[in-house]
Amino acid sequence: MPQPSTAHIEAASTLAIVVSSHEPLLLLSENQTVIAASSSFCRAFDINPATVSRCPLDMLGDGEWAMPKLASLLKATAEGIAQIDAYEIDLKRPDRETRQLVVHARKLDDGDVEHIRLLLAVTDVTAARIEARLRDDLVRDNSMLLKEIQHRVANSLQIIASILMQSARRVQSDEARGHLHNAHHRVMSIAALQRQLSTSKGGNVELRTYFSQLCHSLAASMIADPDRLSIEVRVDDSAVPADVSVSLGLIVTELVINALKHAFPDERPGRILVEYASSGQDWLLTVTDDGVGMPAGSDTPKAGLGTSIVEALARNLACEIRFSDADPGVSVAVGHRADGELRDHPSNENIARPMHDPRPGGGAASPPSGTGQSDDE
Amino acid sequence: MNNGKAVVLVVEDNAIVRMGAVDLVLSAGYEALEATDADTAIRILESRSDIDLVFTDVQMPGTMDGLKLSHYIRDRWPPVKLIVASGDAILEESSLPGGSRFFAKPYDSHTITDAMARLLARDDSIDPAAAADHSGKE
Fold it and tell me: Around Cβ A170, how many Cβ atoms within 10 Å?
């Protein structure tokens, strides 16, 4: 029994708190002798609870806690120089798997400067680390798989695009060639989206970049003289889910192809403006040209595949399509408003006149068949 | 250059895509040669001295992929112009030799023929500043 004058007697409640701690805990003296160990500590690290009291830390168990690093950190903590905050150490025991530990050490602050005591909390993170590593591996595997799939999709689209272009070069009929070129544009429209998706994070597609790429690609393949015809893209910061962006991209593709094919006959110069803006649940996509406008009455061409595609996609997006005279040219608006009334972009006021439906008996939300610049498919 | 026509070597392992690429080279008015991998491409480059431009895929079977091939060509035949295409849209720009052009697949025929025309137009003028200007890859 130590002399009360030299040995400090811990309060029974302090010892009881340490012993009953759910978290593995050691109460140490300044010279790193164990005053008390929690049952959870003894259980976790396979130490006989009867042997812990007054045992120097470096002799605990089979001496596996004799770690110079830990001792030096505890010394620094006792001297008030440092505080061990989530310090990681490996617990090595013969014939047993190395455990990864996270230790926290604190100098107890109870006003007793004569008897410095240290509280060492030890967490075994081996299982958590393995799990985290597995999760990281899984994420890495997934992203590699995704990259591989995107690569394959791009290559497959290249094969389809190559076949369409070769067919287009070989056919004799202008009409058939037109169809093949259009099919090629549609494939390229999906490819532009694919590219955008492969570089975007989180599955949402940022429309400005996507529409710019798309229109750049359409211009590169359809506009022979960039000084005569141009496509301008004005899109706000909207980002939409991938499936919505597919529909929007195809709608832009069809409307731009249509305008390029019909709005500027006889070397007429002009510009196509693609705009998109959203606010809350409302959004509006417009494609406006300053071309020849819609032919009237019986000159109205029959609606083709492009029109059907736009109609079907608009139906899918639960939105309406409005054609209007942009004087000169045509403005096509596709969009959705909670109050049901499709209006122009504020920036568009000088281009688009108040919308009216030029079709006999046509309603705002009815299909745009027979509205003039229908594609010729 | 052969009979006044620029000579373009297409390197692509996929038969359909290669046919398409040869087709676009011919339609642009150039002479087309084809190889299915980097080794064949190098043999062709060694066997004739009139090749002006190599248009290569990246992922190909064999000892070299299109990236390594493009660096090999730049080292061994510096005047030969290079266009690289890949399904990998976010290829590191720095991984390509300077002055070469990169296009993501699927590429647009006109974009490729435009790039070819630009690169071949610079053929005779060895101007390092101009080459640096056009080193941007898409």
Answer: 11
Task: Please list every residue in chain B whose beta carbon sits closer than 8 Å to the beta carbon of residue A166.
Answer: 19-20, 23
| Cα A198 off chain centre by | 10
Whose CA is closest to A239, among A276, A188, A192? A276
Going by C-alpha positions, the residue among A42, A58, A103, A47 that lies closest to residue A77 is A103
Kindly list the structural domains of chain A, giving each domain's residue range(s) and its CATH number in brackets, ordered by start. 12-124 (3.30.450.20), 131-348 (3.30.565.10)
Instruction: Spell out a b/e string for A93-118, using b for 16 or more CB atoms within 10 Å of the CB, else e.
Output: eeeeeebbbbbbbebeeeeeeeebbb
Q: How far apart are the first and last CA of chain B?
A: 26
* pLDDT tens-digit readout, A67-76: 998 998 899 8
Q: Which positions in chain A touch B107 (Cβ < 8 Å)? A: 158, 161
ipTM of model over 0.90: no
- Render pLDDT for A204-232 as a digit per residue (tens, 0 to 9): 889 999 999 889 888 887 888 889 999 99
Closest CB to A198 among B14, B23, B89? B89
User: Does the CB of A171 have a partner CB in chain B at under 8 Å?
Assistant: no
Q: Is the pTM of this model over 0.80?
A: no
What are the structure tokens assigned to A233, written together? 């893209």
Record: fold of B7-122: Rossmann fold (3.40.50)
Residues of A in contact with B90 (CB under 8 A): 198-199
Residue from the list A155, A159, A199 with its beta carbon closest to the beta carbon of B90: A199
- Whole-angstrom Cα distance, residue A332 to residue A289? 9
Beta carbons of B69 and B51 less than 8 angstroms apart: no
